[in-house]
């Protein structure tokens, strides 16, 4: 499978590494000159390009940019693509957004609205980048960490579920993009190492108007 990575921060690099190690063809990009990624791409063993090139390259495209940057994504190049949304909204970084403050939408629904031709699946957002690279285990390993995912397109969800498993995590279907608030920032399963049962319990326990103390998930 060809996987394009939009964003070369911690999550973008971790996703590129996992995908490359799993045998996929990978192209990573950033918002600047892709030549700034020469050493990063060489270390990972992947190709580099512009965001437009990475979007066109991938059968699956990972969006790993600050939430405030989604308006700059290459919309046309992402038409028809499976887009993995790893984004989280941090008000102190991205600014306040009334639709999120009023809980009338989710971050993934906002991304899907910005990319109307894409098949958006929320995944890999509820884990720290350092854990993403170290916590994956084989499918038969005891106490395997689980991660939630959500989307509106069943075939796209199937592909992303397979990648979660391939990258070392038990996939837990959390429903539609409208349900994805249950594993957004500051919810019970956000960046907490849990198995499949723990994720299911945490998703069920989540309340739309209740957030964990800021930064409590960092360790």
Automatic annotation (TrEMBL):
Coiled coil: none annotated. The keyword Metal-binding does not apply. Residues 2-88 form the Pyrroline-5-carboxylate reductase catalytic N-terminal domain. Keywords: Oxidoreductase. InterPro entries: NAD(P)-bd_dom_sf, P5C_Rdtase_cat_N, STEAP_metalloreductase. One of its GO terms (molecular function) is oxidoreductase activity. This is NADPH-dependent F420 reductase. It comes from Paraburkholderia polaris.
